């Protein structure tokens, strides 16, 4: 039986962090046996907000290397760079004729970006959801693992597919949001200000590329407080976040010890010592990140191998993309020879 097609992209706006790993990568690794997976580095999308390309090549290489180091098996999935698949750009062009200025201007992410970069409201930013629809529809993907912020874009992708099918005939299936495994992990930044992010608040984000020393420094500086004032208090979100991370990288015994300390008191004083908790967490994080970091660096340094992997990904992606584009062209009637 043909497997369902899953598609997901990641913008090379920086290196991968703990949130990307536990919120996305870990699920991708689990999905690779069950689905026909296409994962890509969205370098065209980066240009809408990051026109300076000095760091782009390194970021693309690092993200590819990190994806593999995290466990993606290139015999099972197609891992490719968006700009290596020109078929996407052609489908984007056709879909642009079916997307209306009014609806694009109303998109929440567009309005947010206009506020963030009022001096660079480029047409690429406006048509971001159209390019994203092309990314998905080019492989006729039906499952797209996305967070809540992307729900509106997916709705637009469905609308563009519907309009295409209505006008030219059934070619493009409608994609659905997909929450693999049920629970969505969200990792906050270490100062409690928003979430960890590739491109923002980097001193409070744990990157898979961080050195052991930097990991220790970041964790030891993470926001804490005097500790709970009475037993069984609710945890403030920055403390809860440390426990969340601990649950992901430490042993159950360790988590249980600090949960116990958080809730226990001795002579009326709560006994948790955040300094000790952070020391333990730093060491467990190092043990978790070190092998991924080293593997990614080895892959990145083997330029010839990395380049062959990128070519292989492009070939796989183009095979699927050109099959769809052929049908798209036929449906529109753009086949003249
Ligand atoms: P940027 O700062 O460029 O927006 P980002 O860190 O938000 O980067 P994205 O490329 O937007 O990363 O998202 C890639 C994937 O990682 C998405 O599936 C997203 O839901 C997930 N993700 C990003 N940040 C977190 C986080 N802090 N916790 C959990 N999941 C996250
Ligand atoms: Mg983001």
Q: How would you describe what is shown here?
A:
The two termini are 34 Å apart. α3 (56-69) crosses α13, α8 packs across α9 (151-168) and α11 crosses α13. It contains 14 helices and seven strands. It has helices at residues 18-31, 43-47, 56-69, 86-96, 101-105, 108-116, 123-126, 128-137, 151-168, 212-220, 237-249, 252-263, 274-301, 303-332, and strands at 5-10, 36-41, 78-81, 143-145, 176-178, 265-266, 269-270. A hairpin with a 2-residue loop joins β6 and β7 (269-270). With 337 residues, it is mainly alpha-helical. The longest helix is centred in the last third of the chain and has 30 residues, at 303-332. The strands form three sheets. It has a three-stranded parallel β-sheet. Strands 4-5 form a two-stranded parallel ribbon. Strands 6-7 form a two-stranded antiparallel sheet. Bound molecules: adenosine-5'-triphosphate (ATP) and magnesium ion (MG).
